[in-house]
């Protein structure tokens, strides 16, 4: 079983170790995919291309979830988040990679859903950028509902209005979030809580000309 070494002294060593690990996963039962490794190693040797490398490795997420332990999966995503915390990382690329990770983590509710929710929580806590946090929080709400783990999010709904101010989102985004929460609670047979969020959703139309 290939094993991640998540916290090596140098980033380049971390990325090279990841490259070797994913090459082993791709080559299981056959000759090593040398071309894949060389391409990854080239990206790993250049700090400015770390996001490109992680994008490439993230494309192998099905192997990741099927072949390694939960701890190793978690380690990969924690490492994948590192470039997104750096101020020099391109904002557009950061947004695109965040969306990609969210898509991967929420792609199925049938495989390690609790682990996926845990990693989504890591994403929210680590990526301290308002625009990213809104997208991540919305994804957590939807995924918790889809995988029938609504209990995980209930305590986090108490300070949604505070979070909304911190995110500085517009009225349409606020309305969409309220609607998402209402629907998730309604579909999980929490009618009283759902009614509260229905009222909050409807309140966003007050003094508004939106349809």
Write up what this structure looks like.
The protein has 211 residues and is mostly helical. It is 66% helix and 0% strand. The protein has helices spanning 11-26, 34-44, 50-58, 61-67, 70-81, 91-105, 113-126, 130-146, 160-167, 171-187, 191-203. Helix 6 (91-105) packs parallel to helix 8. The chain is elongated, with a radius of gyration of 20 Å. The N and C termini lie far apart (55 Å). Mean pLDDT is 88; it is low at 1-9.
Write down the oligomeric state: single chain
User: Helical segment tally?
Assistant: 11
Silhouette: elongated
Structural class: mainly alpha
Helical content class: 55-70%
The radius of gyration computed from the alpha-carbon positions, rounded to a whole number of angstroms, is 20 Å
In total, the number of strands is 0
The helix-strand sequence is HHHHHHHHHHH
Average of pLDDT: 88
Secondary structure layout:
Layout lengths: L10 H16 L7 H11 L5 H9 L2 H7 L2 H12 L9 H15 L7 H14 L3 H17 L13 H8 L3 H17 L3 H13 L8
Which key features would you list for this structure?
66% helix; elongated
Structure, briefly:
About 65% of the residues lie in helices and about 0% in strands.
């Amino acid at each position: 079983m290939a094993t991640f070494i998540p916290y090596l002294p140098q980033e380049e060593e971390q990325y090279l170790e990841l490259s070797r690990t994913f090459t082993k996963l791709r080559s299981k039962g056959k000759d090593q995919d040398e071309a894949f490794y060389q391409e990854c190693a080239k990206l790993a040797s250049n700090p400015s291309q770390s996001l490109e490398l992680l994008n490439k490795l993230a494309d192998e997420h099905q192997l990741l979830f099927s072949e390694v332990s939960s701890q190793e999966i978690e380690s990969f995503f924690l490492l994948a988040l590192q470039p997104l915390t750096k101020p020099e990382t391109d904002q557009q690329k950061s947004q695109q990679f965040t969306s990609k990770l969210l898509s991967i983590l929420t792609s199925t509710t049938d495989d390690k859903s609790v682990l996926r929710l845990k990693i989504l929580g890591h994403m929210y806590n680590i990526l301290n950028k308002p625009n990213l946090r809104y997208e991540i929080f919305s994804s957590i709400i939807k995924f918790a509902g889809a995988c029938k783990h609504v209990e995980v999010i209930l305590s986090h709904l108490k300070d949604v209005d505070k979070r909304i101010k911190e995110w500085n989102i517009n009225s349409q985004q606020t309305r969409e979030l309220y609607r998402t929460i209402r629907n998730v609670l309604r579909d999980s047979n929490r009618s009283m809580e759902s009614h509260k969020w229905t009222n909050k959703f409807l309140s966003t139309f007050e003094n508004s000309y939106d349809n």
